[in-house]
Amino acid sequence: MGSLQTDLSFYLVDKYALQPEEILIPRLLNEIASGPLRDEWLTLLIDQESEKLNQELDVFLSNVPVPMFMLRLTRNSSFYLNEEMNSYESREEDSSVIELPPQKTGVMIIVTSNARYAWPMWFPLETWTTPSLLIISTFPCWNKLYLRTPLAQRTRSVVLICPQMASYPKPTGRFVVWTWMPFAVKRLIKLGIWNPNYFREFNDLFVDRFKDMTKKKLPIYGMNEDVPFLFQLYPGEAPRGIGPEILKTLSQWLHFNYSFTLKRTVLWTDFHDRMSNGTNELSINYGPQNAETYRYFDLSVSYYHEGHIIIIKNPPPLPLWQNIILSFTRTVWMVVLASLIGTAIAYHLLYRRHRSSFIMNSISITQGLLAKSMEAVPKEWHFRIFLLVWWICSWLVTSFYTSNLIAVLTVPVFPRKIQTLGELADSKYR
């Protein structure tokens, strides 16, 4: 049961949801189940006191095109559930042995008329977590209240469908589709009016709310001597450690910025206070993780999982003779060689009437890279301009090479360090 509940959808029906729009709810559910959710596993959570809506839903359940798991709930009960399978009388499957196929993700769906009675939104069970949440409000459309409940805030993709009101309290018979983007400038986003022809696929209805953080800046608080998680070797330098490396990768992926506030000594109560009052949204540290910590904070790594570190001695510097080659990269050397060959061929084709030896013409061009003057300069001006351009390029190349050679002779060059486990597997330390 627990594994099945983790990925299934949920419906909550309240006995006060008896507005005129209720007669359209079964049709709306049928359009959703046969449209964007046709490949998903569904579960129906029904308030047993909602007799009228239950009768309407019975018609929907008898014609639903996808398998559906149904849960009945009394509003004043303490999570007392009576489990049933959709069309259980005509189906041969045993609900106790049904397993979710790996390609089905599941969607949690809540149908209610009043957020006060939808207790799964305020006190969600851990076994009911799901990547997607669909809320259907019969009346009224409290979009901000629904989309800011604990269950909605912790779910990756959230959609709210509620009736469109032309003038209170007259309904229009149409439903509006909303979502909540926590990092956008305008968080409450209207996706449009519900139309099964428009919302055909799963991705048409559900969007990833945490795909991009729109360059939001996160203040980070920590202790600068917490090796290896977060530390500074010298005052004023950029923080180092596992935490900054993880943040660097995450910021490039999710597009956010961050700033550090580091102190030499920090108490855990200070960490918790700053996180609770919103001064800091993220902290890098380790410490006692108990039930109380898990209740108020989202921790990235379990305390019961041991970490590991790979330590390899720094390699010795490269031999000095390689400095002659390392002054330029391989690409630069290829460009210089190609330019030398191309210029020598072009000069020979232009000057072959005066000197037919390709070797002598190539030597004349090579003298530019060696900073050696030519014994005789051609009298024709187009030859002189050609050689002038080549000598200027040669002078720039030799200047850059000399500067880089001085740099590599001053600072020893080391081989590139191993950065990933894949490089470690391919190295001699395997």
From TrEMBL:
Domain Ionotropic glutamate receptor C-terminal: 331-426
Membrane topology annotation: Multi-pass membrane protein
This protein's UniProt keywords: Cell membrane, Glycoprotein, Membrane, Receptor, Transmembrane, Transmembrane helix
GO biological process: detection of stimulus involved in sensory perception
GO CC term, one of those recorded: plasma membrane
Pfam families: Lig_chan (PF00060)
Principal subcellular localisation of the protein: membrane
Entry protein name: Ionotropic glutamate receptor C-terminal domain-containing protein
